[in-house]
Amino acid sequence: MTEPMTIDEAPDVCTLMRDRAVHRADSRAVVMVSDPDTEDGAAWLTHAELDERARRIAVWLSARAPLGSRVLLLFPAGLDFITALLGCLHAGMIAVPAPVPGPRPHERQRLRRIADNASTAVVLTEAAAEAAVRAWAAEHAPSAVIGVTPVDADVDAWRAPDSDRDSVAVLQYTSGSTADPKGVVITHGNLLSNASGVARVFGFDENSRIGGWIPNYHDMGLMGHLLPPLFFGATSVLMSPGAFLKRPHLWLRLIDRYGLTVSAAPDFAFELCCRRVTDAQVDGLDLSRWRLAVNGSEPVKASVLAAFTERFARYGFRPETMMPCFGMAEATLFVSGTPGRPPVTLDVDAEELEHHRFAPVRGDRPSRTLVSCGTVHDCTARIVDPATRVALPEGHIGELWLRGASVAAGYWGDQAASAAGFGAVTADGEGPFLRTGDLALLHDGELYVTGRIKEVLVIRGRNLYPQDVESELRARHRDLEHGVGAVFTVPAGHDGEALVVTHEVRGRHEREYLAGLAGAMRQTVAREFGVRAAGVVLLRPGGVRRTTSGKIQRLLMRRLYLGGELEAVHVDGEGRA
User: Fold this and answer.
1) Tens digit of pLDDT for each residue in 252-293?
2) So what's the pLDDT on residue 128?
3) Angle formed at CA 469 by CA 468 and CA 472, multiple of 5 degrees
4) C-alpha angle with apex 295: 369 to 113, nearest 5 degrees?
5) CA angle 547, 552, 554 (to 5 degrees)
C-alpha cells in the first residue's frame, strides 16, 4: 500500500478524503455524542463509511442538478450534515451550510436571503427537520429540489468530479454581526491550505481528537472542529449546540470522556462555564488531556481567561492550554494564535486608545487591557490607515489587512463588495489584500484586535469601543451580569451622535427598580467613559440579537431601536420601543 497522501499533496478535498477512506478505513472519522454525561447515545462513522455515504449522496445529487450547483444544507447537529457536505464536494457541487429554519421571522428571512443569493438548486435535510424545511422551502425556495438523507443511490455509479484547488467548495455565509450575510467563496485550496497551516502550527496529526459544540454551519465549527480532523485522518467528536447552552458542563464532560486534545469556542462560552457550572456537575472531571482551548470568534476578555483558568485549575486545566486567537470566514478560519503558553495581555492608556493610538499605561491613568491573539501564521499581515491606505509600522493602530493562500476568492454574486473587500492595495502599491474591517495593532510580533471599524462609537470627537462599555456595565451592576448588552450610537442632530445602551435584565422587577437601575447605568457610563447615555433600554433575556456564534449584532440592534421594534421592559430617556 502506498503512503498516505499529505494535505499539501492533495489536488482537491475529494481526492484527499478518498485517500483517508483507504488508509484510515476502520478508524472513527466522526463521533456524534448525544449525552456526554454517559457512555450512551454516541453514534459514529469510520472514514470508509463516511466515504461511502458521501458518494451515495453525490450520485443522488448528480442525477438532479448540474456541476457547480449550490446545495443548501439545513441539518440539525448530527452525522447526516457531514455526509451531505462531503456528498456535495464529491458531486462537484457547492455546499451552502445554514441553520434549520426556526419560527422567528428574521431567521426565516435571513435564510431566504442566503437561498436567493446562492441561487439554490437543491435543499438537503434529514427526517427530523423535513417538515420545517419543506414548509420554509414552499414559501421561500419553491423551485429547489428537496432531498432527505440518507438517500437511496448506487454508490458504484459514482464518478469523481473534475475538481482542483481552484474549484469552489463552500459558500460560507458570514454571521452578519455588522451587515446582511455575504457568501464567502471558499475553494478546495482554501480549505486545504488552512488545515495544513493549522496542522503545522498546532502539531495536529491522525492521533488528534478535535471537537466541541459549535454549530456545523458556523466557520469555527465547520473549518475548526469538523474538516481538519477529517483531512488529517483523525477523529472529530461533536455534540449539539443546544445541549451546551442548556447544560454548559456537558462540553467539559465531552472533552474529558472522549479525550479531546483541541476544542474551540467563543469567549462567551468560557464565561458561561464560569457562571453556571457547579462543582457537583464536574465531580471527578479531568481536563489534563485538553491541550488547546481555542478562544476566538468574538473579542476575548482578559477577565474571562483568568476566571476560567482559576475555576478549572483543580480539574487539570493549565494556563498554557488557553489560546486566544483571531480568525474569520473571509480567511477560511484561522489567522493567528500561539499555542503552548499562557495568554499574553497588554495594558494600554485608555485615552490614547480612544484616539486609535497605542501607548502603554503609566501611573494611575485610566487603562484598558488588550488580549494578544498571538502571531500571524501563513498570511502576510499589514496594519493600514483605512483612510489613506498607508501601511503603518508596528505599534500603531489601523485596519488589519491580510493576504495568503487561505484568503477566500471573494463574495458570491457581489463583484463590488469583492473588489472592495478582497482587492485592497496599499498606497505604495502592495496587494491585493483582504480588508478585515478590524482595528488592530502589532506589538512585539503579537496581534491585538481593538474593535470593528463599523462598530466604533464616535461621540464628540472621541472613539469608544462598545465591548468596553458593555463589559463595564456588567461588572458594575449585578442584575446585568447574566445578560447581554449592545451599545451603539444614533443621530442626534447638531450634537452629532448620541449613545444608546440596550441590555437584557433577568427576573421580574418593579418599574421603580428598573428606573433606578437605568439611572445607575447612566451614572456608570458618565463616570467611567465621560459621555452621556441619551437612552437606556432594558430588555427581556434574548432581547439582544446575536449571531449563531454568539457575536452581538450591534448594527441590527441599532436598526431595531431606530425602527421602534425593540420589546422593552423599561425605557429611560430617549429610548424607543
Assistant:
1) 999 999 999 999 999 989 999 999 999 999 999 999 999 999
2) 94
3) 85
4) 110
5) 115
Q: Are 202 and 374 in contact (CB under 8 A)?
A: no
Under DSSP, is residue 457 helix (H, G, I), strand (E, B) or coil? strand
What does 493-548 look like in DSSP terms, one character per residue? GGG-EEEEEEEE--S---HHHHHHHHHHHHHHHHHHHS--EEEEEEE-TT-S-B-T
Query: Do residues 439 and 534 both lie within one domain?
Result: no
Answer with the one of 146, 163, 180 that is the final residue of a domain.
163
Q: For residue 78, tell me if it sits in a domain.
A: yes
Grid coordinates 489613506 are at which residue?
Answer: 388
Q: 142: Cβ–Cβ under 8 A, 6 or more apart, which residues? A: none
**369 and 433 belong to one structural domain:** yes
CATH of residue 39: 3.40.50.980
Helix (H) or strand (E) holding 345: strand 345-349
Grid-cell match 491585538, residue found:
448
Contacts of 212 (CB under 8 A, 6+ apart): 221, 225, 238, 239, 251, 254, 255, 260, 263, 264, 265
Q: Which residues make beta-bridge pairs with 392?
A: 383
- pLDDT tens-digit readout, 169-178: 999 998 654 4
Containing structural domain, residue 407: 344-454
| Model-wide pTM > 0.70 | yes
- Residue 565 and residue 448 share a domain: no
Domain count, the chain: 3
246 belongs to a structural domain: no
